[in-house]
Amino acid sequence: MTARKPSRKPSDPIEVPPTAKPVTTEVTAPAAAPVPAEAPVEAPADTPAPPPAKRARARKTAAAATGTPPRPRRGGGSRNVLPAVVLDDADRGRLLAGEHHDPHGVLGAHPTSGGVLFRALRPFAQSVTVLAEGKEAELQSDGDGFFSGVLPLPALPDGYRLRIAYDDNTIEVEDPYRFLPAIGELDLHLIGEGRHEELWKALGAQPMEHQGVAGTRFTVWAPNARGVRVTGDFNYWDGTAFPMRSLGATGVWELFLPGVGEGAVYKYDICRPDGSHTQRADPMARHTEVPPATASVVTASRHEWQDADWMAHRGDRPVHEAPFSVYEVHLPSWRPGLSYRQLASQLPAYVRELGFTHVELMPVSEHPFGGSWGYQVTGFYAPTSRMGSPDDFRFLVDALHAAGIGVLMDWVPAHFPRDDWALAEFDGRPLYEHSDPNRAAHPDWGTLEFDYGRKEVRNFLVSNATYWCEEFHIDGLRVDAVASMLYLDYSREDGQWSPNEFGGRENLDAVAFLQEMNATVYRRNPGVVTMAEESTAWDGVTRATDHGGLGFGLKWNMGWMHDSLVYISKEPIHRKYHHNEMTFSMVYAYSENYVLPISHDEVVHGKQALVTKMPGDWWQRRANHRAYLGFMWAHPGKQLLFMGQEFAQGAEWSEGHGPDWWLLDETYEASGDHRGVRSLVTDLNAVYNALPALWQRDTSPEGFSWIDGGAAEDNAFSFVRYDADGSPLIAVSHFSPVVRHDYRIGVPDGPEAWVEVLNTDAARYGGSDVRNEEPLKPEAVQAHGRDTSITLTLPPLATVWLRPA
Questions:
Q1: pTM assigned to the model
Q2: Where in the sequence does UniProt note compositional bias of the Low complexity kind (predicted)?
Q3: Which of 23, 149, 211, 277 is most buried when burial is the number of CB atoms within 10 A of its CB?
Q4: Listing from the earlier edge strand, what are the strands of the sheet with 204-210?
Q5: pLDDT tens, 112-144?
């Protein structure tokens, strides 16, 4: 065989690069091992290798043609290599079938009589040569990709490499089967206990240096698997040569692959209990291919955080005693087509201009179907790659922190989709989902519910919550669909659910999980807040876990949202019959720590945008919209508003095109109407942030007092908010399209005059500009149970805030 001109000096090291495609080298095959013409050829870099079944058929066909059995002949080898003991048929079969639990016990280097036995499994190779202690020794071919031989060495070499010759190239690699496990005993112990709070550091694909060699450690939890192999672009998606070892009773499988680095694309080839195979994405993947591709990607962070000051001080003030107004964003559609880094140059500035203290991101975890908005997660540890890499997402969070904006994100531990490459029956049996089909199947969304009673599953989720806070500096988690987790009979009919051990309908496993998650997040991450989307009257959602509560910091007030939207959607003439819809929330306002949400769920699927819910003509709709926001910002509780509602978008939100930004274009004749509403939101946030009475005592009954909650005939609501020092702010909301002059309300004693600090009817907001321009002086006239009162003019469909002069 004639040697071709080498592409590098013979002394240069030859490694499998991080891109994982074999490097073509110009090395002449050893004369002692001529390549048979019929030797299999490794597939091109962009072409997967033939599947094992096809190779088996090819071997049988060749055997039939020659009249010999399909067991291979022995051949090749160097003179200084002794033949090895023939591999046991059982081990041979299990390795080829991908169901061997201890490949390191068979492959690699092992002391034996007469020296050291080397055995390698390299399908399609023509020869395998061991390079150890300055010597080269070609192993003998045992067929089916097995090569073996005994070298007369006194002890196991500290390290060795394999030179593997294929038909058209030769590669030189470290042998993966010479390495000790790259995961520690403590990690395995904690995984077995279900208490590994940094699970992402123990499982998944971790680039690292192990025993002095750079590579990637692959670890996966698959306790029901008969065998697991790593498959990826570095082996042409044929994992035959890369079986993983089982590490005891933990159900963890491990393999360190030298030379495989960042950017490598991979999956796990799992042999199920019935012997069939399935290829699965890594449940612990920190990066994924861009959907609809489904493989996992090896990654490591290079981001250098710039938010040390933010992180050090974000917990200085308890969240329920701090300003907290939230702009909810669906990142892929806020400005469609922008990457994380492009968003970082636009989103922080926009949110800061509006004055919101936080953004809440709809789920950013990887999900296969964009139309799910991220609520059907397949990659719980991976930010969606649709907009960039994990470090790109870190860059966005860093930029928001630099702008003084906290970052909240939706987190979805309630369910996961049934995709056959993801978590569903991951290792051939129910693993992440409950083993009882009635408990596993989510009745509403066609998904599967997690088995919260399984310690490893609970660990997977609790660790995931802390992962986002610690690896991405997330400031809060809004937990989706908590009610569906808490109740065994959620959306189920009689006969479709079984009571708990006490005969109740509470899911005690889910309760324990949520308590553990909240306790762990708060202990490990000072300043982080957790929020529950919980739509029932479950007691103690925001009560501390050591007092029997679930331990959330805040809860979405779904009752307030529903009732207030019912009221505001009525024609003004009918509102007096629904007056209590606006006042009932104060009956339970201090039973939990609440957020008042006008979220994405309220402006899709036929529910209409917020301004479109309002009755009347276009002017009245905008006026109602402004008055409602003024009422909302003054009501006890934190605020949340979904994107597009800040400028009164009339159409429902669509993830396909996002907000209707064109409404703000100055060339659009009605843009002033929308800009006016946006100016109001900016001023609402500015005044809100400046006046502690609007947020400092949100969770204390002493921070609120009705002036008149019963003015149903006037469609009016008036109340006082107090800060911790007792300084008051008066809010009056008027939901009739008429002007009311000399409207008398009782006011707290003390202030010598009251002045308007905000009026949603101001001309700059698009209103009729009915104002109370002069200070309002109290009179010694009793009203609403108070000794002093003032008279003011109530603008039509407007909210007015007054503070002491």
A1: 0.89
A2: 21-46
A3: 149
A4: 204-210, 213-221, 252-258, 245-246
A5: 998 999 999 999 999 999 999 888 999 999 999
